[in-house]
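job 3f2a | input accepted
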Amino acid sequence: MRALFLIQLLLITFFYSSAASASLIERDYLGVTDGITYDTETELEWLDLTFTRELGLAGYQEYLNELDAGWTFASSALVRQLLTNFNFTFDQTANNIYGNVIEYRRFYTHSRPSQSFFDHVEELTILGESKDKDNKFFGVKGFTSDMDDDDLYEQYMVYYTTSKNTGVASAGNFVRTPSKAIFDSFFTYRESGPLQTANLIGPVLFAPAIAVPAPATLGLFSMFLCLMGLRKIKASHKA
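job 3f2a | predicted structure (239 res):
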């Protein structure tokens, strides 16, 4: 009975941890596999960045009007909230995590980035990967609707050179006017619900939720439950 109790406790802890860490689901859209990323926490759908690549600002606005599907240019605040799913840190002092930092005015780079940086970039590309025309850069890069005092739009970007010598990151500090560059995209979202299927082409595909690293507090809580269970078993055995 004691062994059965411990097994049940471990199973409960495992499923609780899995549920807490899973929040992003991929859906097909307009015939594109995984064209939408659905956030179960915020109930927002995010349009794959590849849909808005090379449009420029005017072309992007026209494209949203043509879709007429409730899509909206996302603010920096919403993008920051979305990126928390990936446990990526924009901390410029994170040398021990991503590699040595070289600071610039609008962004910063990691020289000879660590494997953790590459892994996090790979995870982020479910939002829509970005590449330049010569395939020298790989990662995620998108404008938000927020502007600075010069009416330049903020960009969030995390990418690395294909030579893997340099990693680049910016949390909205890199600003410029959106152009038709192949490496430019726009963060685009719409409000949704878990059962909404409007404007989706074909069946809604609920792929397995992405396993996002669980917060440290969740791990500690799980460990605490297990320890409490072991103590209860020992106390019962002594009695």
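job 3f2a | The chain has six helices and eleven strands.
job 3f2a | closed
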